[in-house]
Write a structure and sequence with these properties.
InterPro entries: Flag_FlgI. It comes from Pontivivens marinum. One of its GO terms (molecular function) is structural molecule activity. The radius of gyration is 32 Å and the shape is flat. The longest helix is centred in the first third of the chain and has 18 residues. With about 375 residues, it is α+β, with helices and mostly antiparallel strands. Strand 6 and strand 7 form a beta hairpin. It folds into 3 domains: about 80 residues; about 140 residues, no CATH class; about 80 residues, no CATH class.
Length: about 375
């Protein structure tokens, strides 16, 4: 199993080095001002097939439904109002950057009461507010839920999450975010993975395209553009051109392991110094086989007796001698050295931890 994993890693590394040495700037950075804005709203989903909130446990649903009907001219005050086809929900979404009034956006609908399913429901007009309290969009439409629930008198089966769903293009933008991109005189490029070497390479590549002085590295995560240094182009034109410039990004050497699945990922810059490793498995086995002893026939007052029988054993895997992992200067050499140990991925995680503790693994070790 481990050898198959190692071979796959070697193929991936060789393919990457041959075909993907450079990356576009737009895939490495975030542009200042080009971002979405989170919206949230409280609404009601109606039309459920008896799977809505139980109003005794979710009184806020009854209150919201009564207020909605009163706004529509129907007075239900003092009436016995117990519908089971209504569910209170929170509606969330992200207003896209530069969204204009009349545009549409996707929203997610999630129950907040004890409704069992949103299948077949329709969201009633729900205002969506931003952090400043202003309404920027209004959502409404049929909910698409990816789950299902079937129940009987003594059992129930749930597939997926029927208490959450989405409405594609279910919200319409009513207010625009006041931001004029072309009025900027400077623009910050924020690296998604801060690194001084990558930031310096971005600075060099941009200055080579537009001339020295337009780009300046502020720190490992920021490159600032002086948009006034290119007066013949608007900020939008500059960004449109520079985001496709290809840069060779750099990164720290990392080893990422997932103990739950036994996954091991090694970066191309991982190095291991010469180290000797010994690994063996010790197995303790306890087996219980109780024996029931019956009394002799016609024995007065005889009772059956359970006699315990236990088998205890200790096994240690043979061949747990020291294995030498030589100095490895490339990723294929690292993989070949570790693969020579011939252990499972889960045992390899423990070995990598020990090598890191010994100071022979020259990489950042991340455990998930």
């Amino acid at each position: 199993m481990m050898r198959g994993f190692i071979i796959l890693m070697m193929l991936l590394v060789s393919g990457f080095s041959a075909n993907a040495e450079t990356v576009r700037i737009k895939d490495l950075v975030e542009f200042e001002g080009v971002r979405g804005n989170d919206l949230v709203g409280y609404g009601l989903v109606v039309g459920l097939d008896g799977s809505g909130d139980t109003l005794r446990n979710s009184p806020f649903t009854e209150e919201a439904m009564a207020n909605l009907l009163e706004r529509l001219g129907i007075n239900v005050s003092g009436e016995q109002f117990r519908p089971r086809n209504v569910a209170a929900v929170l509606v969330t979404g992200a207003l896209p950057p530069f969204a204009r009034a009349g545009g549409q956006m996707d929203v997610t609908v999630s129950t907040i009461g004890d409704a069992r399913s949103l299948l077949g429901g329709t969201l009633i007009m729900t205002p969506l507010n931003a952090a400043d309290g202003e309404i920027y969009a209004v959502a409404q439409g049929p909910v698409i839920s990816g789950g299902a629930r079937v129940e009987g008198d003594a059992a129930s089966v749930t597939l997926g999450v029927p208490t959450s769903g989405v409405i594609p293009a279910g919200a319409r933008v009513e207010r625009e975010v006041p931001f004029v991109f072309n009025d900027l005189t400077s623009l910050d490029l924020a690296l998604r993975t801060p690194d001084f070497t990558t930031a310096a390479r971005i600075e060099t590549s941009v200055n080579a395209r537009y001339g020295g002085g337009i780009a300046r590295m502020i720190d490992s995560g920021t490159v600032r553009l002086d948009l006034l240094a290119a007066p013949d182009l608007t900020p939008s034109q500059i960004v449109s051109s520079l985001e496709n410039i290809e840069v060779d990004p750099d990164q720290r050497a990392r080893v990422v392991v997932d103990q739950r699945s036994g996954t091991i990922v090694l970066g191309s810059d991982v190095r291991i110094s010469a180290v000797a490793v010994s690994q063996g498995n010790l197995t303790l086995r306890v087996e219980e086989a109780p024996l029931v002893v019956q009394p002799n026939p016609f024995t007065p007052g005889g009772d059956a007796v359970v006699v315990p029988r236990s088998t205890v054993g200790i096994e240690e895997e043979a061949g747990s001698q020291l294995a030498l992992v030589n100095d490895a200067t490339t990723l294929p050499e690292v993989i070949a050295g570790l693969n020579a140990l011939g252990v499972s991925p889960r045992d390899m995680i423990d070995i990598l931890k020990a090598i890191k503790a010994a100071g022979a693994l020259h990489a950042e070790f991340i455990v998930q």
